[in-house]
């Protein structure tokens, strides 16, 4: 074999060789499959957290309707929501509860954006907690809850349209409406 035909022969042999072909496919596809799997786990845990928050709000609204929480009960309401929910780490420090009566003639109430805890500034926002006058009239009440939680694996933002604040935390919100019964 001549000197110039050796590299050509070697290149032909290299091109026909299929050793390691499965390894190349594995290296390309494994990170994608792993990311999808971890994203599904993360999104599943986030959805369980959202369902548990909604359940806790429903249980707490029942207590409000039964008269167990008074006019100055925002902190008590936060405690009850956190006690009834699971999988929300540091719920007490990351929850904001807002409640106001709705004017049924024009349905004005909580029109603005949700007010959530900003852990970067370590300031608890001032929210309105007004359970209404009660009295003879039955008032329609709107309740909004915002909980900021750390994602389980920090992959959720890649696969979903969930709200994520600038600190990279998930923003879980819940709404409820009920009629304030006269006492």
From TrEMBL:
UniProt keyword list: Membrane, Transmembrane, Transmembrane helix
Transmembrane feature ranges: 20-45
Superkingdom of the organism of origin: Bacteria
Membrane as UniProt keyword: yes
Protein name from the UniProt record: Pilus assembly protein
Biological classification of the source: Bacteria, Pseudomonadati, Pseudomonadota, Alphaproteobacteria, Rhodobacterales
All residue ranges annotated as the TadE-like domain in the record: 20-62
InterPro entries assigned to the protein according to its UniProt record, in alphabetical order: TadE-like_dom
Organism: Roseinatronobacter alkalisoli
